[in-house]
Amino acid sequence: MGLLDELGLDQLVAAGCTACGSKKLTFRTFVDGLLPIMVAEPVGRMTWVYDGEKFIDGVFDVRCTDCKQLVFAAAICPRCHAAGGLARALETPNGWPVPTACPRCDGEELRYIAFVPARVAYEGKRADKARSSTELHENGFHGYRVDCKQCGTVAERTDVCPLCDAPAPLRPRPG
User: Fold this and answer.
1) How many domains does the chain have?
2) Is 168 part of any domain?
3) Cis amide leading into 78 (omega within 30)
4) pLDDT of 107-162, one tens digit each?
5) Which residues of 92-128 are buried (b: 16+ CB within 10 A; e: fewer)?
6) Residue 163 covered by a domain
7) Which among 162, 139, 133, 136 is positioned nearest to 34, based on CA atoms?
8) What is the separation of C-alpha 166 from the centre of its chain, rounded to a whole number of angstroms?
9) DSSP letter at 150?
10) Residue 102 carries which DSSP code?
11) The pTM is what?
12) Domain housing 136
């Protein structure tokens, strides 16, 4: 589990901003996104493929939406907890090659699943949709799995942390 768990999230949301009293919070998190690709290039929009537990697990910054007061921060890697890992994850490009075809059937229609930094606004009962301006070839986008429409999952990065390149083994993810 990340540094923030479900109980911690509930407490943080209930307290809101201690500086101005607002209940509007903006979360920065690494969440799972699925990008359809053909010949190693995007051919559609990113689809978010994470659940609530994985959302909480990736949170590294929470601020008051109104006054920008810091409510929660973690500088460790959200995936493996390596010291200084968050900075590496945000400042480095994807270290896992985007395939041009399926290694099993040579099919060109693939789904590239990655950790992507996103912002999520929350007020009261429901969070907004995750938003990210990070694209495939930009810093912060980190692939970790490739699915083929025909073969299913054909590759998964387990040798190092996909976010910060810390050595494996990786801690189990929630969900």
Assistant:
1) 1
2) no
3) no
4) 999 999 999 999 999 998 788 999 999 999 999 999 999 999 899 999 999 999 99
5) eebebebbeebeeeeebebbbbbbbbbebebeeeeee
6) no
7) 136
8) 16
9) T
10) -
11) 0.92
12) 6-15+27-156
In this structure, is residue 171 part of a structural domain?
A: no
Residues 89 and 100: their CA atoms lie apart, in Å, by 24
Tell me whether residue 42 is exposed, middle or buried, using C-beta atoms within 10 angstroms of its C-beta: 0 to 12, 13 to 18, 19 or more.
middle
User: What is the chain's length?
Assistant: 175
CB 97 within 8 A of CB 136: no
Q: Which of 43, 21, 34 is nearest to 132 (CA)?
A: 34
Measure the CA–CA gap between 43 and 141, rounded to whole angstroms: 16
Amino acid present at 99: P
Give 81-96 pLDDT, tens digit per residue.
999 999 999 999 999 9
- Asked whether residue 173 is domain-assigned, the answer is no
Q: How far, in Å, CA of 39 to CA of 172, rounded? A: 31
